[in-house]
Design a protein that fits this description.
Elements: H1 3-42, H2 54-92, E1 94-99, H3 106-110, E2 120-131, E3 134-147, E4 158-184, H4 189-192, H5 198-203, E5 210-212, H6 217-222, E6 223-227, H7 230-236, H8 239-246, E7 251-266, H9 285-308
Antiparallel strand pairs: 1-2, 2-3, 3-4, 4-6, 4-7, 5-6
Helix pairs in contact: 1-2, 2-9, 8-9
């Protein structure tokens, strides 16, 4: 990577850290004058009411530095993505499109049956590529449900994170006439929540979700399997595929339907991000290796399906 680009990345990261410090100081400054006012008043002194204007200045500073930090982080993410992450991706796959600050189409996410319902979201690192002949997309996602509080303050608002992790979509070479859904038993979230989605209704997975046992005790103890028919499930869930899925980490929700394999991995991680452990000494190899390891985790999922089923052959 060009030395000037590398220096620019490190300088932008330092600036983001400075803005974060200013934001924290501004937040503390909002309350400091009130504390000082109470201490002075307790000792019998009086302060001019103009002191109470100081918090307003700190409030303005807090929002200003927050806004600046957000924009600079996006700039840093874009620069790091295009010049570091993209090169790492190119080592293992053919990159059709990569957007560091982009994510999978929101309308599709609302209709994706393996994701929970949500009304607020953000995401990053949209990847569209081809790996070992398999065309796929990837995104980091955070899906939330936000509720507004009542005007009288009796009922406070809430912000619940329903999903934080990755969504991988792979286009298979063969069309599946029906659906197979595989859900981890670690959480009953997907059973208790209403599935979002036109897609699930089209496939019949809301009205005809037939539970299915594979006969593999270890697999059946870890996963719930639903299918439009048992014969389809038997054809898709080969012993090799079940063994491969057992070797993956993270809370997984999987749907195989039509010519698409969708894998949602809830692991509370955000991949391809700068960590606080990174060094600002001009050596970016630490980050490259981190991104290579994270990419390997993504490609491992694709390999499980590509190498253990005939869907991609």
């Amino acid at each position: 990577m060009d030395q000037n680009i590398e220096s620019e990345i490190l300088e932008k990261r330092k600036l983001c850290k400075v803005l974060k410090v200013f934001k924290i100081v501004s937040f503390i400054g909002i309350f400091a004058p009130f504390v000082a006012f109470m201490v002075v008043s307790r000792n019998g002194y009086e302060l001019d009411s103009a002191w109470l204007l100081i918090p307003a200045l700190f409030v303005g500073g807090f929002f200003l530095f927050s806004y600046m930090e957000t924009n600079k982080l996006k700039d840093l993410k874009e620069l790091m993505g295009q010049y570091v992450v993209r090169s790492v991706l190119g080592e293992r796959l053919h990159v059709i499109e990569y957007m560091p600050n982009g994510y999978t189409n929101e309308a599709f996410l609302h209709n994706c049956p393996i994701l929970p319902s949500f009304n607020n979201m953000d995401g990053s690192d949209f990847i569209h590529g081809i790996y070992r002949g398999v065309e796929f997309t990837f995104s980091d996602l955070t899906l939330r449900t936000e509720t507004k509080g009542s005007p009288d303050g009796e009922f406070p608002g809430d912000n619940v994170v329903n999903f934080k992790g990755q969504l991988i979509m792979a286009t298979s070479h063969k069309n599946v006439n029906g659906f197979v859904q595989i859900q981890e038993r670690i959480s009953r979230r997907m059973k208790n929540e209403k599935k979002s989605g036109i897609l699930s209704r089209v496939l019949g997975s809301e009205n005809s979700r037939n539970s299915f046992m594979t006969g593999n005790a270890s697999f059946d103890n870890r996963f719930d399997i639903y299918a439009s028919d048992s014969q389809l499930a038997l054809r898709v869930l080969t012993p090799q595929l079940m063994q491969g899925l057992m070797g993956l980490e993270g809370f997984m929700e999987i749907q195989i339907a039509g010519n698409m394999v969708a894998v949602a991995i809830k692991n509370d991680r955000d991949l391809f991000e700068l960590s606080n452990n990174g060094r600002d000494n001009g050596d970016m190899e630490e980050y490259r290796q981190k991104f290579r390891d994270e990419l390997s985790d993504i490609l491992k999922v694709i390999d499980v399906f590509g190498m253990n089923t005939d869907l991609f052959q």
